[in-house]
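Comment thread on ticket #2218

A.B. wrote:
> Attaching the input chain for the structure job we discussed in standup.
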Amino acid sequence: MDLTLDDDDALQVYKALASDTRIDILKLLSQNSLTVSELSQQLGYSKAIISRYMKILEDARLVGHHKDIEAGIDGRKKLYYLAIDHIDINLPKKIFLPYEKETQEIKLGYFSDFSVYPTCGLASASAIIGDYDEPRSFASNNRIEATLLWFSQGYVEYILPNRVTSGIHPELIEISLELSSEFPDSNNVWPSDISFYLNDIKVGTWTVPGNFSDVRGKLTPHWWEDYLSQYGLLKSLRINHEDTCVDGKKISNFTLEDLVLQESPFIKLKIAVEEDAENRGGLTIFGKDFGNHPQNILYTLYYTENV
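C.D. wrote:
> Ran it. Output below, let me know if you need it in another format.
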């Protein structure tokens, strides 16, 4: 079971996990359901202390209990079990109070240009598009249905209208997408250098650590095999007046001023694994029907206006 928490609920989980003993309890419960007495014996603490710990863990929704039907006629003994196997904590999003914003969704299959090398492919929510490891599939009319794409080297490029016009002052560009590297089956440790271009300017390169299949993606369709890529990491590329960063970590000195946005009616976004990359581990992009996050690529412009 997955547990997804917003910041208001997360404090209880932080407190519950802030104890080596409570972590040890969770480890034991991951193997077997146990009573307070059994936990007390294995951990060397009194039943009173273990009972207090169980209350904290239960309030945080990390453990549950049911009556031990073999404990006796009174049935008062509680058998505790691990209630979750994965936790997502949604931290509060940074709010740019002085700014207006506009978000444009970029569907994965709506690329305007590409150059890809096998292993490569496209998939919709219901089927593979074209053939595995066939670059010509990227030219198929059905590519617009893609919500998963992957390649070992090359790029995809998208074009969208530029909303920066006279009187609009860009303050931040944010590009959000779920991505991993690419491996013929899957490899959780398989780094790849992903380069991002805006209007033909390389704004930075970020290294994704792997291609993940340790658990199934929350959204990954049932027909997609377990051993194939299941999910990626949701990342935010941000370009402001000072630098370019990924999730707040600086990756280059390029700024909004370097992009000269006012000079073009369009924005070109290219995402690439380059031939000379130190870690040439490919790229997988997850859309709204695959992975863990129900979104396609999102391009958000934060801006101010002349008053």
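A.B. wrote:
> Thanks. Noting for the ticket: The longest helix spans residues 47-59.
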